[in-house]
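Field: COMPLEX_INPUT
Field: COMPONENT_COUNT = two
Field: RESIDUE_TOTAL = 533
Field: MODE = joint
Values follow.
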Amino acid sequence: MRRSRRESRRERAALRALTSSALALLGTAGKAAADTAIDHYESSYSFSTYSEDDLKKSDTIPGGETKRYEINTQQLSLAAPVTEWLDLSLLVTHEHMTGASPWYTTPDAAGTPIQIMSGATIQDTRNDMRVHGNYYTDSGRLGFGGGYSKENDFSALSFSTDGELHFNEKNTTLSGGLGSSFDDIDPTDADKYPTRPDHKTKQSYSGFVGLSQVWDRRSILEGSFTYSWDRGYLSDPYKEVFQVGGVQNYGDFRPNSRHQFAFLARFNRHLEETESTIHLSYQYYIDTWGISSHTAELGWYQSFGDSFQIAPHVRYYSQSKADFYVPYLQFGQPKLEDMSSDFRLSAFGALSFGAKAEYVFHTPWFRDIEWRTHLSVERYLSSGDLSLSSVSVASPGLVSFTVFSLGVDVAF
Amino acid sequence: MKPVTRAGRALLLWALVSLPGLSTTGCASLGWQWDKWWSDVKLPDFPAFDEYTESPKSYVEIALEHDFLVRVKPWERAVLARHDMAWDPDALEAARREHTFFSKEATMPGGSAGGGGCGCN
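Field: COMPLEX_OUTPUT
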């Protein structure tokens, strides 16, 4: 009897997931990794709008620009089998960004920093393309990837290689990878602003090792360590540092080297009684700029029958400030070797929450495609009050945003 | 000194003096011939050098030998194969969120290597 393509696909999916322990870590166009090459085509498309809340009137000068960034993102991915033991995937991202961004901070009458936004509205696009190939063996996987990202003023070329080894009847998986990125920065209007350099470069080298373990029929656990070394021009050419009584603003000066360490632990468990899956993750991060952070995330995937799912999630983030973060320099204060007023280097905490609705259906009358459609919303709030570390003066540039997203995945 | 204590000391002294004498002479009343008893014990052959110097197994090795980490058999993986049991069920969303948080926070995402930065402002 001829089996329907859906049935055989399901079986193969189950077979493929024999080591779902291997799952993912793919830096690039990631299909959920498994231990054999995919045997059908998969394609996904997603459209999202990202919009930052306006700056509070009290956080800037009277009549100052309060509008911030808006980004429309389109993503398209395609994964295809090449042979039984080789597959390839491609991820293309196109983004259009518009709006103003934080420029520098000055004190108000009371000495509290207020944010000055970049005057001219920024218009930028980012195109990013990544390819990733996987070679599978009986006991593991070897992957190679490359990517190119281009913005008006920025380009990055990146390479990565990663792999997995399975042990203990594929209950334990050791994974690891190496990556590098070579970036070029060509700030716009460098001739108009003395603090902006003409052309700068930076490089990043990273590596990770991870160990995942199938805990029982319904749970899986993973721990990983990631290290990255960034060197070169790590400053932000569009940010400045204000000095009270100064003749003109200073540029943003950051150390030209940064070592970063991240420890990530995650745990997934499916509860059969309630048809729900819990995702838990925690990451501790520390770097040589004096920043340390905690990220904790909880996701709940609640199924209602075979085809409908609602997945709410909540994420908490808290970071300490960089050693050289200054809102502004006081009157007469000597220029610091390293200094930045970037809100991203200040101490803050962030809470984000959102939900995703997903509907899966098949079209047996049309190539028996499996369609997975989803709609999601996420709200992100950041403030000094949410930080775990004590914040003497929170940056006025801290951002809050909302993201709406619509997507479809097809498998055929 | 109390009479009880004195009696105890006397008993102890008697035991120390007489018991070794009894045992070394192979006193028939105890029924023990210590030297013969020892001769019955067969010492094992001296182990080979490498065997003798083998370090004891670690708990990890013992655990591995007992399949401590083999918890789920291939035919029991239906739940683990679920779409929502993947670390990132929606790869595009994961990539987009990672990029967003990376752009607005000072933390590098863990668990993978590589990927380009951005000129994010």
